[in-house]
Amino acid sequence: MQSTRAPYGSTPVYVVDGARTPFLKARGRPGPFSASDLAVAAGRPLLARQKFAPDLLDEVILGCAMPSPDEANIGRIVALRLGCGDKVPGWTVMRNCASAMQAVDSAARNIALGASDLVLAGGTEAMSRAAILFDDEMVHWLADLGRAKTPVAKLKHFAKLRPGHLRPVIALLKGLTDPLVGLNMGQTCEVISHRFGINRQQMDAFSVRSHLRLAAAVDAGLMDEVVAAYDSGGNVYETDDGLRRESSEDKLATLKPFFDRKVGLVTPGNSSQVTDGAALMLLASARAVEEHDLPVLGRILDCQWAALDPAQMGLGPVHASTPILQRHGLEIADVDYWEINEAFAGQVLSCMAAWQDDDYCRDELGLEGALGSLDEDRLNIDGGAVSIGHPVGASGARIALHALNVLARTGGEKAIATLCIGGGQGGAMLLSRGSE
Fold first, then answer.
1. Which of 136, 212, 232, 435 would you call most buried, defined as having the most Cβ atoms within 10 angstroms of its Cβ?
2. CA–CA separation, 46 vs 120, rounded Å?
3. Model confidence at 186: pLDDT above 90
4. Strand stretches in 285-423, DSSP E
5. CATH number of 185-223+299-433: 3.30.230.10, 3.40.50.150, 3.90.650.10, 3.40.47.10?
6. Is the pTM of this model over 0.85?
7. Once rounded to an integer, what is the mean pLDDT over residues 34-45?
C-alpha cells in the first residue's frame, strides 16, 4: 500500500541552484571524461558561485550506476576533488536510471529530518567507459594459469586457450538487461508499446519533436544549467552533442528495429542515447537559506517510488506519479510542466496512453477510471533523453533541475519530474517554483 503522507512532512526543502555538464554521446570508445571528472566539471562552477565555502556542506550524495573500479564510492571521491575537505562525508547510491533522483531524495529527507542543512546531490555516469569483462571460462583459465608453477606447466596450459575464451562480455549490455525476465530495456519498451498500440510512426514523430525542441531551446539560450567541461588536452565541450538538427520522420523510418529485428518498433533513432554526463543540485534547509542569504530556485514537495512487473518497467512513471497526484489533490492538467525521461519514445507514449486507459487505471492503479490526458505542450518542452541523452546515473537530477528552471522562466507553479527504472520501478518528484 502506498503511503498517504508526503515524505518530507511540513519541513521545507529548498533547491538553491544546480548545474550539469553537456551530455556527450558515447561513440564506441571511452569518452574524454571519467564519471568523477564529469561530476567535478559540474560541481566546481556550481560551488564557486555560492556564498559559502564547500567545506560547509553537510554531505555530498551522488548517484552512479556504473562507477569504474577505481571510483567505487564516487560520492566521496567527488567531495574531496571539489575541495569539501576531509570532514565532509560523501556517499553513493544506485537505483539504475533513477540513481540521481534517489540521491536528491536522500538529501531532501536528511534536510527534512534536521540532519543536514546544505547538501550537494545528483548523479554522474560515464557510460562510454563501462567495463569490458571476461566470461567465467576465461576467468577459470586465468586462475589455473596462476596455479601453474613451472614453465612447462604454463606452456601446457596455454595450449588450452581457445579463441572463445577471448570473447568480451560487454558490461553495459549486461547491466541494461533484466536478469529475472531476461529482457533488455528496449525489449520491455516493445512489450508496453504493443500493449497500448503505439506504432512506429508515432515513435519516430515523438523522437523528431524531441530533437527539434532541444534545437529550439539551445538556439534561444534556454539551457542555462549547462556548464562547459574541459578535458586534459584543453578541448572544450559546451553543448549536448547528440542533437540531430536534421532529424526527420523520413530519415528515422529507414532505421531497422534494434531489439526485436523481426516485428520490433524500437530503433536507435527513437531510443535514448548512450551518454556520458553529470547533473548536480544544491539543496538547503530554511536555516541555511537564511544564514547564507541564498537564492531559492524552488522546493521539493514530494517524492514517490513505485514498483511493477519488470517486463513493463517503462510504465514506472505512471505508478510513481499517480500517488503524488492523489496525495496533493491534483489532476494531470493541474501540473504546469512535466518531465518524463525519454528512455524510449514508445515508453513515454505508453505512459500517456496508460493514464487514458480505463482498464489500466482500474486494474493497475486502483482508480475508478482513466486519470486523463497529458497535454504534450506541457511535456518535455525543451526535448528529452532521445535528443539530450540518458547517462543513467545522472538523468534523475537533470530532469528535476530542468523542470525547476522551466517553472522559473514560465511562471508556472508546479512540475513533476519522473522516470522509469530498470528492474520494474518508477520514481517521481513534485517540485514547486520559488520559496512558497
1. 212
2. 10
3. no
4. 298-307, 337-340, 414-421
5. 3.40.47.10
6. yes
7. 98
